[in-house]
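Late entry, evening session. Most of the bench is empty. Finally got around to the prediction I had been postponing all week. Sequence below, unchanged from the version circulated by S.P.
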Amino acid sequence: MQNVGAYGQQVSEVITKVEALERSTGKVVSFTNQECDFDYRSSRFKYKDEGKYIITKVTYRLDPAGSPTVGYPQLAEKLGDEDIESGTSGLKKVREATLALRRSKSMVVDPKDPNSRSCGSFFVNPVLGMAQYDALVKRVQAQGIAEPVPNFASGVDVKVPAAWLIEQAGFKKGERRGGVGISENHPLALVNHDGTTQQLLALAQEIIQEVLDQFDVELVREPVLVMPDTS
């Protein structure tokens, strides 16, 4: 279980309780929001307690009269000058705009869109300390890349879009490797057209290695790989 999020909001902001089955004992346990140790795209269940629990129930605290979150530049641009009030009407407008943005990037499942045949973003945006970020900027400049490195504050660190690193490393949207490839609409999505899991993982590793070689930044896979028990 990760702390999924998009366009300026994360589920950790509204989760109040998580219930799980402890695999070794069969005991049902519950965790408060704080006990889940949520962080950027992570929680205790993804790292510290990986494989220890099976999540059975998640409780959310939603406010129908709440104010919509519009903290992401693309979302704000999509909404334009539209008046976004608090309450159900405003929340609905932001939801519709968010879905439209996601659909334009093939990030909403659509049987008519072959590029939506993915598990969403395959890589987490790397969060760098200032020294590593400064080193990245120097590497980018040394390669003659005129475009400044996009970045977002993440506490005292800096978050860099993985999509930007992938494209600057030479990978293009729509690029294929046999039966798998990169989405035509988003460089973070890897699409299985008619290939195999092994081909998809090989493409992911090729991207990871190329970004590491060029920028000394190691991309981390976002989806968790579950292998069958052959014992």
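Two things to note before I forget:
DSSP finds five helices and 13 strands in the chain.
Residues 59 and 202 are 37 Å apart (CA to CA).
Will write this up properly tomorrow.
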